[in-house]
Amino acid sequence: MASLAIEVNGMRFKNPFLLGSGPPGTNGKVIKRSFSLGWGGIVCKTISLDNSKVVNVAPRYGKLHARGHKDEVIGFQNIELISDRPFATWLEELADIKREYPDHMLIASVMEEYRRDAWHEIIERTQATGIDGIELNLSCPHGLPERKMGAAMGQDPQIVEEVCGWVKEVAKVPVWAKMTPNITDPAVPAMAAMRGGADGISAINTILCIVGVNLETLRPMPTVEGYTEPGGYSGQAVRPIALRQVMQIARACPKATISGMGGIETAEDAAQFLLLGSHTVQVCTGAMLQGYEMIEGLCNGLSSFMDRRGFASVRDLVGKSLPYFDTHAGLVARQAEAKREHAGRSDRDAHTWKGDIARETKTLFTE
Ligand SMILES: Cc1cc2nc3c(=O)[nH]c(=O)nc-3n(C[C@H](O)[C@H](O)[C@H](O)COP(=O)(O)O)c2cc1C
User: In the chain, N or C terminus with fewer CB closer than 10 Å?
Assistant: First the structure.
């Protein structure tokens, strides 16, 4: 039977499934519950030194439902900030979780202002709790960029490199830099993070969005006192974009370990992230919608997939599909070559581009 265990940057995960930073890791009590149910690790809700500056609003979530299927949420918007709980409380809880669950990987997500001393302080005090790793939130798309934090840092490769450098001056545990997808080429800041000394890359954070406009009130959602701001989009709708960004980062940064996320809800979703270069995967919105218990299905499903396809360990899957990308010119050349090879085939079997498009769209646009 396939082994789901994987060692990444010296951290030993029982399985590659982590809960992503957000509501699933909002305090020590729920983090312990997730470990008791079998999650391989968790990235806690992002913490900062001064919680008094973090002021959340309500409502702060908006859902996009599948057409005609009110029960199915395909996209999820949030305008939630990082944790508004005191740093000192977090330090106590992180230490307590590690005492009770020494074998589950606990990663602290941290965010600070653009000051070397602030990053030194948050890393030194957080790692003193015994946590296994640190994730740098350089990617929160809403609210915090107004304070030059989060995505405001992650969108500037020079700052990414500098901040990762500051962190590595004092970090004694592995450091993953979490990337923003709200940028043209995610490989650019990811390479900067690696130059700064990061051990790995987490991707993606949420994609800036407006989930919809209420046609009765004419107000965009989620509506706070009649107004809103663009928020972060997550859930299954973002998965194809996340897969593309993970692939780009994996190809550009072959030395980086990658923790991939964005719309993972099933073992099959997770396997695709692994095949495109992720070493672990994170689930945030999926767990908010389905509950922590989904871990059982994720582990069983990945195990069956690996057994069926003959993969003995998770590492064997990592990046297996990466070689199968090419430029458009490369695809044209490959197709021309294939056509030459098949030149002898009968007309009935021959592939025509009209036939391909008809099969893909179920509509004969080309007639
Ligand atoms: C309500 C909510 C709150 C989040 N808060 C954080 C956060 O505090 N820090 C962070 O790095 N990412 C945060 N995220 C982003 C997720 O960790 C993840 O990167 C993103 O949602 C994509 O994964 P998913 O589709 O599995 O949710 C949050 C996401 C949601 C939905």
Answer: C
Residues 36 and 86 in one domain: yes
User: In 3-state terms, what secondary structure has residue 75?
Assistant: strand
C-alpha 316 chain-centroid distance: 21
pLDDT at 363: 58
Please determine, for residue 290, whether its predicted confidence score (pLDDT) is greater than 70. Answer: yes
> What's the gap in Å between 351 CA and the centre of ligand 1?
43
Q: 285 with 76: CB under 8 angstroms? A: yes
Ligand 1 closest atom vs CA 285? 27
Q: Which residue range forms the structural domain that includes residue 152?
A: 6-321
Shared-domain flag, residues 222 and 92: yes
Separation between Cα atoms, residue 168 and residue 174, nearest integer Å: 9
Residue 332 carries which side chain, given as an amino acid letter?
Answer: V
Predicted confidence (pLDDT) at residue 152 exceeds the cutoff of 80: yes
Residues 115 and 68 in one domain: yes
From 140, 164, 253, 299, the catalytic residue: 140
C-alpha 253 – ligand 1 centre gap (Å): 23
Same domain, 101 and 69: yes
Work out which ligand 1 atom sits closest to the CA atom of 286: 26
Q: Can you tell me the mean pLDDT for 343-350? A: 61
Question: What is the rounded CA–CA span in Å between residue 163 and residue 332?
Answer: 42
Kindly state the average pLDDT of the residues 181-195.
Answer: 97
Exposure pattern of 341-360 as b/e (b: 16+ CB <10 Å)? Answer: eeeeeeeeeeeeeeeeeeee
Residue 143: what pLDDT? 75
Distance from the alpha carbon of residue 208 to the mean position of ligand 1, in angstroms: 12
- 95-98: long-range contacts (C-beta < 8 A, 24 or more apart)? 95/129, 95/130, 96/28, 97/28, 97/31, 97/32, 97/35, 98/129, 98/130, 98/131, 98/132
User: Confidence band (pLDDT; 50, 70, 90) for 367?
Assistant: very low
299 included as an active-site residue: no
Residue 367 is assigned to a structural domain of this protein = no
Ligand 1 pocket test, candidate residues 206, 208, 264, most atoms within 8 A of CB: 206
| Per-residue pLDDT, 10 | 98
Out of 21, 182, 236, mutate this one to test ligand 1's pocket (max ligand atoms within 8 Å of CB): namely: 21
